[in-house]
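[User] At your convenience, examine this fold.
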Amino acid sequence: MGDKNQSIRIDHWISAILLFTMAAIAFINVLSRYLFHFSFAATEEITINLFVWLTVVGSGIAFERGGQLGMVTLYNVFPRKFKRVIVLFSAGMSALLFILVDIYTIQAIKDEVTLFHATSAALGIPVWIYYTGVPILSIFVFMGIYRDASSRLDGLKQEKIG
């Protein structure tokens, strides 16, 4: 049985829905190729863009679980009083990276809406629609960074008490 205190997490649901949708699209396309010798051109376009969105949401989950790249051995060498600074610095740099990603993505969306008006090859959807998922779903990355830093800082407090 699961933990009763575990709440339903929207980021987990979004990840599951995106992954299921990608698998269903791929499966339908395989069946179509096998049974009808016909492939849907749009499946690749949709799957690639859903994969980007899934990666953004999954990055937030990875941050929260401590799955981001880190130098654990170097971190462990530092005294406890410096570990707090390192945790805050790491969280700040991670957040800064995704802020930059969001800034550049928003600039790309603005350029697509105002200048280029590009559409996707298979479906003819304005490409800025695909781009909007990155800054919107980045909220889960920031939440994951915050949760990871909070739990690490709480762990350092517990070390000090214990």
Summary: The chain has six helices and no strands. The chain has a mean pLDDT of 92. The chain has one domain: 10-161.
